[in-house]
C-alpha cells in the first residue's frame, strides 16, 4: 500500500523525534539507524527515502532537540519575565536536567560528540550556541553590549559544563555539589527549582 505524503511527513517527524531522544541518551555513535527505525515503529528500508545519511539524521535530530529547548526557555521567560535569567539557569543546572539527558539540552548530552561529527551536525550546534548566547545576552546585566555578550557566553559555558560534569561524576554527592556550586555562582537568589530545560 502506497504511503500518502502526509503519512510520509508524519513518519519522518517521528523518526527525527525518536532519534533526537536516542542520540541524547546514547550518543551519536551509541545507536544505529536500525535501532532508531525500530523504536519509531518503521522498517529500516524507509530510512534512505527520508535521509541522506546517519549524519543527516543526526543534524535534523539535534536541531529538533534545540528547538524544544528554546521553546522551554521561552516558556520560562513567559512565566516569570522579571526573573527569566534565574529561572533558565535553575532549570538548566538542576538534578532533573542532569538525570534526563534524553529530554534535555543537546549541548550537554551531545556537545563533546559533535566535535567529531560531520560539518552539517557541527553547523547545527554552532547555530544553537549562537542562539543561546543571543538569548542570554538579552537577559544578563551589563554596561555595554560587549560586556553582556561576554557574560552571556561565560554563563552558557558554566551552565553546560556543570551539567556535563555532574553527569560524569561517579559520586552522587559530588554530582550534586557541582550543580549547587554553579547555582551559587550564577543564580544566588532563592527561587524554587523549575522543570528541566
Automatic annotation (TrEMBL):
Q: Which residues form the HTH tetR-type domain?
A: 9-69
Which residue ranges carry the DNA-binding annotation? 32-51
Pfam families cross-referenced by the UniProt entry: TetR_N (PF00440)
Presence of the UniProt keyword Transcription in the record: yes
Record flagged with keyword Lipid biosynthesis: no
* Alphabetized UniProt keyword annotations: DNA-binding, Transcription, Transcription regulation
Query: Gene3D superfamilies, per this entry?
Result: Homeodomain-like (1.10.10.60), Tetracycline Repressor, domain 2 (1.10.357.10)
The name of this protein is: TetR/AcrR family transcriptional repressor of nem operon
Amino acid at each position: 500500500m502506497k504511503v500518502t505524503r502526509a503519512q510520509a511527513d508524519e513518519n519522518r517527524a517521528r523518526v527525527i523525534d525518536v532519534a533526537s531522544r536516542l542520540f541524547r541518551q546514547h550518543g551519536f555513535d551509541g545507536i544505529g539507524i536500525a535501532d532508531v527505525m525500530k523504536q519509531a515503529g518503521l522498517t529500516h528500508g524507509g530510512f534512505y527515502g527520508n535521509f541522506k545519511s546517519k549524519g543527516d539524521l543526526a543534524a535534523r535530530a539535534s536541531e529538533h532537540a534545540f528547538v524544544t529547548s528554546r521553546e522551554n526557555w521561552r516558556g520560562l521567560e513567559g512565566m516569570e519575565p522579571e526573573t527569566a535569567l534565574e529561572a533558565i539557569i535553575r532549570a538548566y543546572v538542576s538534578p532533573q536536567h542532569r538525570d534526563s539527558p534524553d529530554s534535555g539540552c543537546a549541548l550537554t548530552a551531545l556537545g563533546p560528540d559533535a566535535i567529531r561529527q560531520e560539518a552539517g551536525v557541527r553547523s547545527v550546534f554552532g547555530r544553537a550556541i549562537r542562539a543561546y548566547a543571543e538569548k542570554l545576552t538579552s537577559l544578563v546585566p551589563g554596561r555595554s553590549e560587549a560586556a553582556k555578550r561576554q557574560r552571556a557566553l561565560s554563563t552558557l559555558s558554566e551552565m553546560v559544563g556543570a551539567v556535563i560534569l555532574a553527569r560524569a561524576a561517579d559520586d552522587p554527592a559530588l554530582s550534586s555539589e557541582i550543580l549547587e556550586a554553579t547555582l551559587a555562582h550564577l543564580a544566588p537568589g532563592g527561587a524554587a527549582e523549575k522543570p528541566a530545560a
